[in-house]
Request: fold
Amino acid sequence: MSFSTLGLSTPILDALKEQGYTNPTPIQAQAIPAIMAGKDVMAAAQTGTGKTAGFTLPILERLAAGKPAGANQARALILTPTRELAAQVAESVATYSKGMKLSSTVVFGGVKINPQMMKLRRGVDILVATPGRLMDLYNQNAVKFSNLEVLVLDEADRMLDMGFIHDIKKILKILPPKRQNLLFSATFSNDIRKLARGLVNNPVEISVSPPNAAAPSVEQKVYKVEKAQKPALLVQLIKDNNWFQVLVFTKTKHGANKLTQQIEASGFKAAAIHGNKSQGARTKALAGFKDGSIQILVATDIAARGLDIDQLPQVVNYELPNVAEDYVHRIGRTGRAGSTGHAISLVAEEEVKLLRGIERLIKKTLEVASLPDFKPLAKMPARSKSNAQPKPPAGRKPLARKPKPKNPTARKPATKADN
Ligand code: AMP
Reply:
């Protein structure tokens, strides 16, 4: 299938050609006709599937056929959970609409609000926004939605995880009821379905990758190691494998800063990216990582979400995430667009339980590797048995299983400060 069979017009086809895209990705092949037909859509698709073009291209087609935006109005609103994702989506919108007479802009927190107010004055056809800043702008009368035609919630699952549900509900209340709604989410959890009930009407449901299944093109390995040895093991792995571009995940912002210093002390160029860093510092770190001047980018989950780095070869889980689904998101940064990626996890004894949870989720026992100088403590299990329940000691009854928490992926909304 080619893009022209989807009924896209010449300026868009030209922009796609310029990008070197020859064929639509599966999400694009399904979403573009449904959205062009004016349907609401609920799509399960992760970053890396081409979802951004999947909703952007048909929106551009729709908007090109109507009247330009009036003062302070927005005709299409794309909501994203993080600043980085907002900036990336806005960049894609600008790229694909290059040959069209459509205007677009992006607004997010952490930077001055006044220039954003100025940009909104004459109205924009497409507005990309994070929820918090959008509400601020609305409350200051800088943006109006009476002419809104399309709403996109991008990475809706992460928006809920980050505690944006109240902002989203407030935003939905200020939008005109007659509009096209597009909901994109990595997974369709019960919470997402609940949100969808108040949002989409008779939606076309699209799913391009089985939820919670890791991309098959990512080679995954585990190194069992004592916590104190992790920095040295990471440095050794960077040296042994000549990794030139590696994204390293830590659990905390403080941990990211500390590890960055340790890596730099070993002579490598590294930078940290997390919610306490200024927007300028984050943009600079990401640009350095993309152009190769920074070899190792150390990130927390929230900051790394949605980072679009083409063909990232290597991801390292310096610490395993508390929420098993985040493992899938993390390793989804590598092995994208058909290239093979590598994901390595450094697992200390206290993380073995988290590892088992991950293995259960991805339905796979991860290969355990080791380096001669980094042997784990003897009492650590050499291999985790992902699909088997651990046997209770002889003569003792197995413990009753703890009841599952209602929402296992819920986390503190503190990260909202990111936006
Ligand atoms: P996304 O999932 O929207 O973040 O897109 C992931 C990456 O795929 C981005 O770098 C896009 O530029 C790229 N991409 C999107 N659509 C296509 C396509 N049809 N062919 C090749 N690459 C694409």
